[in-house]
Design a protein that fits this description.
Number of helices: 8
Structural class: alpha/beta
CATH class: Alpha Beta
Oligomer: single chain
Number of strands: 13
Radius of gyration: 17 Å
Strand order of the largest sheet: 3-4-7-9-8
Number of domains: 1
Order of helices and strands: EHEHHHHEEEEHEEEEEEEHH
Strand content: 15-25%
Shape: globular
């Protein structure tokens, strides 16, 4: 059984809770879909926990930005993380691929196969967020993925079976259940729940099964950590599951 995690964002208690839950359910393999450390929580401690596990891991947009952007131009979440990280942590981030054909039947990316910015399974409309249609997902995927495609980035869990039989899933976010973002225009991604999220995969090929899992953890401690670091824009989502 394979546990797939994404968008940890330095939330070590949530990561530990997902790991313990997955092990208890029989997971023997773990995969990380990126956006690992950025945020006002526990970036260094999260990196120190993850690196010895040596899970198959891909880079998210924030991981890329941490090792490519000018520090003076970084957003607050990336700036907090990089101030706490050592060169060994940054070297690890530099080593991560943008996507991964992990197994013949499992293809993995962060945002979508072409980039780490645009959502694969969701669309930003002027007044709302909606689920992407079958043809929109298929258009972004092209021929990638023979059976199962996993992505992250939107923080919203979803699982669909496309008309061509391929399964596509987003496990949701381990570490942050809601956020606001200005691209392509200001929008909110809100789950309305405080649990940490991941996915469990069992079987292989056409028989592969996907379960989206929610795990309770001490989200109030994570919210308190964000608030102590001056980030109410993180504290409120962690405490409530909504942006405000």
């Amino acid at each position: 059984m394979i546990a797939v995690l994404s968008d940890i964002h330095g939330n070590l208690p949530a990561l530990e809770a997902c790991h313990a839950d997955a092990v208890a359910r029989g997971a023997t393999q773990f995969i990380n879909l990126g956006d690992i450390l950025s945020g006002p929580l526990w970036p260094r401690e999260t990196a120190d926990w993850l690196m010895p596990h040596n899970w198959p891991t891909i880079s998210g947009n924030h991981d890329r930005e941490l090792v490519t952007c000018d520090r003076a131009r970084m957003g607050r979440s990336d700036a907090h993380a990089i101030a706490e990280l050592a060169e060994a942590h940054l070297e690890w981030l530099r080593s991560l691929p943008a996507d991964l054909q992990w197994r013949e039947d499992i293809y993995l990316c962060h945002g979508n196969p072409a980039d780490d910015i645009h959502y694969l399974m969701h669309r930003v409309e002027p007044e709302s967020i909606r689920d992407a249609h079958d043809f929109e997902i298929t258009g972004m995927l092209g021929a990638r993925g023979t059976h199962v495609i996993g992505c992250g980035h939107s923080h919203l869990p979803r699982h669909v079976v496309l008309s061509d039989g391929r399964q596509v899933f987003n496990p949701g976010s381990v570490g942050l259940p809601a956020y606001a973002w200005e691209y392509p225009h200001i929008h909110r991604m809100e789950l309305g729940a405080t649990e940490a999220r991941y996915a469990l995969l069992s079987g292989a090929g056409e028989t592969l099964q996907i379960e989206l899992v929610a795990v309770e953890y001490d989200h109030r401690a994570a919210a308190a950590r964000a608030e102590a670091n001056g980030r109410m824009d993180w504290a409120v989502p962690l405490r409530t599951g909504f942006v405000d």
